[in-house]
Structure formats: C-alpha cells, structure tokens
Amino acid sequence: MYSSARRSLVHVAAGTLVAVALPVLGMKTQNLTLDQEFGDSLPIVATYNRVSDAFPGGSDPARR
User: Of 53, 34, 61, 54, nearest to 45 (Cα)?
Assistant: First the structure.
C-alpha cells in the first residue's frame, strides 16, 4: 500500500514532532515578580521598585 520510503518519512516526521514537544513537559507556569524573574542586578528593576514605592496604589486608578 505505502512505500517503504514514505513510511520512513512518516516515522522521521513523528519522531521530530515528539522531540520538539518534549521540553513542554518540563515547563512550569507561574506568575513571577520582577525580582524573581530578573533579580536585583538590573537597573530597570531598581527603578521599578523605586517607582512602586513612590506610588503604592498599584495599577488601580486614582480616586477623588
């Protein structure tokens, strides 16, 4: 029905798909803070922390 070459190609394609998909099994999804993700070594993290301390309201809009 199918040639040996075509069957081999299907096996190689399936193996490649599995090999590409394997890293998904090791993924851990969570919401990290900026400090957890980048550490304190980046200047942008220090700037973000200073701005957050100066304006502690978060992302909520200001109220009158």
Answer: 34
Task: Let me know if residue 60 belongs to a domain.
Answer: no
Handedness of CA 21, 23, 29, 33 (dihedral sign): negative
Q: Which amino acid is at 2?
A: Y
Higher pLDDT, 60 or 20: 20
| Number of domain units in the chain | 1
Rounded Cα gap, residues 57 and 39, in angstroms = 23
Whole-number Cα distances in Å, 4 to 1, 10, 13, 42: 9, 10, 14, 56
Q: Containing domain of residue 17, as a range?
A: 4-54
Task: Look up the pTM and report it.
Answer: 0.41
